[in-house]
């Protein structure tokens, strides 16, 4: 989408540089580009080379774990090699986990096998996990539960784009070292919003998951959003406007505002705490090595 292409149709000129500039101007300090497959890793690394503030994850999304099947060990070795060759840019293993809402793309058993397999990558390289959980809480917890040693070795992780129940959140947090990632999808319904409101600040991370998961006017969290950006339809693209329906990194401010409104806390103080959470999980090693 940041190349101006939607569903195979070119609607406007590529504008990634403009999108990044808008993010930096909004105060974004760093961006982690999420990979969902081996091919995505190469694209993400190429993109991250453009700016020292861009970083990547390496891993395979649950809906794409069938990609392991022709040659599981070979595929795993290639993921491992990408990490080994790009230690300065790779900040997490993932996106990995379980997604039982989209089993048409990859079956449960395959997802479980290769989710667990990727935990070994995290432990070996001592990289945190960027985790995905959709309608799969029981199996997700079971796999993490029998891999507590690997969780400790890798330093934990974040369950991103969380839309689960408060009970599921408590089960995740009980592992220790795991955060809950909040974006527009996490603030969709009143039930979602109430779960988010009760999460402890020292276990929350903000994210956009762009170009998806913006906070839409119909979302429960939207009432607390005060920062707005000029928006146009994709066919009427301009450099000064955001494309309607396409989430951008700059919109992380809106997630902060929604969370601050729900919790009735000053957004500046909340931003400091949540930024530190992200630093502690993904970038602490950078400071330790200096």
Report on this model:
By secondary structure, the chain is of the alpha/beta class. The chain has helices at 16-26, 38-48, 72-85, 108-125, 137-145, 148-154, 166-173, 190-197, 252-263, 267-288, and strands at residues 5-6, 9-10, 31-33, 54-58, 90-99, 129-134, 157-159, 178-182, 204-206, 231-232, 242-243. A 7-stranded parallel beta sheet has the order 3-4-5-6-7-8-9, sandwiched between helices. The radius of gyration is 18 Å and the shape is globular. The chain starts with a strand and ends with a helix.
Q: What's the arrangement of secondary structure elements?
A:
Layout: E1 5-6, E2 9-10, H1 16-26, E3 31-33, H2 38-48, E4 54-58, H3 72-85, E5 90-99, H4 108-125, E6 129-134, H5 137-145, H6 148-154, E7 157-159, H7 166-173, E8 178-182, H8 190-197, E9 204-206, E10 231-232, E11 242-243, H9 252-263, H10 267-288
Parallel strand pairs: 3-4, 4-5, 5-6, 6-7, 7-8, 8-9, 10-11
Antiparallel strand pairs: 1-2
Structural class from helices and strands? alpha/beta
Spatial strand sequence of the major β-sheet: 3-4-5-6-7-8-9
Rg (C-alpha, Å): 18 Å
State the order of secondary-structure elements, H for helix, E for strand.
Answer: EEHEHEHEHEHHEHEHEEEHH
Strand content: 5-15%
Give the distance, in angstroms, between the N- and C-terminal Cα atoms: 37 Å
* Low-pLDDT residue intervals, each spanning 5 or more residues: none
Mean pLDDT metric: 96
Give the overall silhouette.
globular
Largest sheet: 7 strands, parallel
Q: What is the strand tally?
A: 11
Helical percentage: 40-55%
Figure out the total of helices. 10
């Amino acid at each position: 989408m940041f190349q101006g292409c939607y569903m195979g149709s070119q609607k406007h000129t590529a504008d990634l540089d403009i999108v990044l500039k808008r993010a930096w101007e909004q105060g974004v300090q760093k961006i982690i580009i999420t990979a969902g497959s081996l091919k995505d890793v190469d694209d993400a690394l190429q993109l991250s080379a453009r700016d020292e503030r861009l970083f990547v994850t390496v891993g395979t999304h649950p809906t794409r774990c069938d990609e392991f099947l022709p040659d599981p060990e070979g595929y795993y070795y290639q993921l491992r090699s990408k990490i080994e060759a790009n230690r300065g840019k790779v900040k997490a293993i993932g996106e990995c986990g379980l997604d039982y809402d989209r089993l048409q793309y990859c079956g449960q058993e395959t997802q479980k096998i290769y989710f667990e397999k990727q935990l070994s990558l995290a432990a070996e390289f001592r990289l945190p996990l960027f985790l995905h959980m959709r309608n799969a809480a029981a199996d997700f917890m079971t796999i993490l539960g029998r891999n507590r040693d690997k969780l400790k070795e890798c330093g934990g992780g974040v369950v991103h784009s969380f839309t689960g129940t408060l009970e599921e959140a408590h089960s995740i947090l009980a592992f220790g070292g795991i955060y809950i990632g909040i974006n527009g999808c996490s603030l969709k319904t009143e039930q979602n919003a109430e779960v988010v409101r009760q999460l402890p600040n020292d276990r929350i991370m903000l994210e956009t998951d762009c170009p998806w998961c913006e906070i839409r006017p119909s979302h429960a969290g939207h009432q607390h959003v005060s920062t707005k950006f000029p928006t146009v339809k994709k066919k009427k693209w301009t450099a000064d406007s955001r494309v309607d329906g396409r989430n951008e990194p700059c919109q992380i401010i809106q997630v902060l505002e929604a969370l601050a409104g729900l919790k009735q806390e000053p957004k500046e103080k909340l931003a400091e705490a949540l930024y530190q959470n992200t630093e502690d999980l993904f970038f602490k090693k950078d400071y330790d090595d200096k």
